[in-house]
Amino acid sequence: MTQEDERWMHEAIAIARSKGSDPSTSPLGCVIVLDGKVIAGERNQTKELPDATAHAEMMAIRRACESTGELELRGATLYSTLQPCGMCTMASIWSKVGRVVYGAGRDDVHEMYFEAQHVDTLTFIGDAYRDDIVIEGGCLRDDCAKLYYGPDAELPVDEQANL
Ligand SMILES: [Zn+2]
């Protein structure tokens, strides 16, 4: 993890914070960087659109492909404030980003943020489908974790998205 990584993660955090500071709004931010430039920066838009697949990473991959006119994002790095879910990890693989860097991981936030309780889909998918994608977590971990409900937050069941 480099200072350059932290710089881009700060941008992803700023995009996440553009939704405000309430964790219930799913403030996830993502930027995709290619050759030292941001080619896409998006936030989670599932409720706004509404679209269950409109995670920050999915939206950023769509914008990055549009802005480059390319189907493949080889050499690009995707920065996400939270460990990507299985869908977004798979989308990273299909879009051929070279590297995924995330901030907070599974253990840093409430379990509601992840689709499976017992399987870490990011590791599973990353290992299963490509061995040339680099996936690294913990970039500005504490700053990113602050955006979300903590592991021990007591939440009413109807506010827990995936349970
Ligand atoms: Zn996702």
TrEMBL record:
Segments forming domain CMP/dCMP-type deaminase: 3-120
InterPro entries tied to this protein: CMP_dCMP_dom, Cytidine_deaminase-like
GO molecular function list: catalytic activity
Record-linked SUPFAM superfamilies: Cytidine deaminase-like (SSF53927)
Coiled-coil spans in chain: none
PANTHER family: CYTOSINE DEAMINASE FAMILY MEMBER (PTHR11079), RIBOFLAVIN BIOSYNTHESIS PROTEIN PYRD, CHLOROPLASTIC (PTHR11079:SF162)
Listed name of the protein: Nucleoside deaminase
Organism this protein belongs to: Sphingomonas ginsenosidivorax
